[in-house]
Amino acid sequence: MTQIVDFIDIPLNQLEIGKSQVRLSDVGKGIDELAESINKVGLLEPIVVAPQGANGKYEIILGQRRFLAHQLLRLDTIKAGILNERVTEIEAKVLSVTENLMRRELNRKDLIDVCTYLYKQYGTIKDVVTESGLPYHKVREYVKYDRLVPELKQLVDNGEVDLKAALRAQDASSTSGDFEPKDAVKLAKELSGMSSAQQKKVQKELEEDPSESVDTVIDRAKGSGKVTQLIVTLGQQAHASLQSFADDEGTVLGDAAAQLIEEGLVSKGYDADGGI
């Protein structure tokens, strides 16, 4: 029976990613964050490899993303568990899919709880990121959860609305000084179906005129004019910067681009109140 017989530090140049990997899509997604985590706290779970034969190299059976993160960090070696024998492609696929199915990511509520706890302990988002290696934009997003009213927390926990919509709904519903949780819940649900620009428009209008009917503002935002789609070609660095901005804002590329365009127009003195 195949089993791990030893744990050693193996040079990266002696490793090859096997053809048996089941994770073939978006393999590189989040590698930067994984590398940052490894850089901060080390490799918490060794990869698993099998000897290839007389060439002295090893096939990566489990842990290709950890291996890629080590390459990104330009490390020389990686901790690995060594299987006692070579495995067939089908055996390797079984091991790979089993690990991926059994490995359960922390759910959103657990991540919010731990980020909030760490924030209270360290005092700043920067310190949480430095000490934990967690992505900055995620920590910044999750620590805000703690100020939500229970009714909105429940919506976020259940996945009915995202955190940004819940926060905007609470802030917009609080401006009149007569806060009603049921109104905030209704507004949060409506905002979740809108683009980031539309959400900001609703929030801005309600904050500027708290006496305005929520339903009226929402209807106006939903029908705020013709939507025009732009196709823009960006260089690699500009695209990477836009992606980083989107990640920090907790939004998608399209909404991030729209937000920057609107802010740029306003800063130049042009009217951008139409939203998207």
Would you mind describing this structure in some detail?
This protein is an alpha/beta fold. It folds into three domains: 4-102, Conserved hypothetical protein from pyrococcus furiosus pfu- 392566-001, ParB domain; 108-224, no CATH class; 225-276. 53% of the residues lie in helices and 10% in strands. The protein is built from 13 helices and five strands. It has a five-stranded mixed β-sheet. A hairpin with a 6-residue loop joins strand 3 (47-51) and strand 4 (58-62). Helix 1 crosses helix 2 (64-72), helix 7 runs antiparallel to helix 8 and helix 10 packs antiparallel against helix 11. The longest helix is centred in the middle third of the chain and has 15 residues, at 108-122. The radius of gyration is 24 Å and the shape is elongated. It starts with a strand and ends in a 9-residue tail after the last helix.
Helix and strand element order: EEHEEHEHHHHHHHHHHH
Largest sheet: 5 strands, mixed
* Spatial separation of the terminal alpha carbons: 60 Å
Helix content: 40-55%
Given helix and strand content, the structural type is alpha/beta
> Within the largest sheet, what's the order of strands?
1-5-3-4-2
* Estimated share of beta-strand residues: 5-15%
Low-confidence stretches: none
Number of strand elements: 5
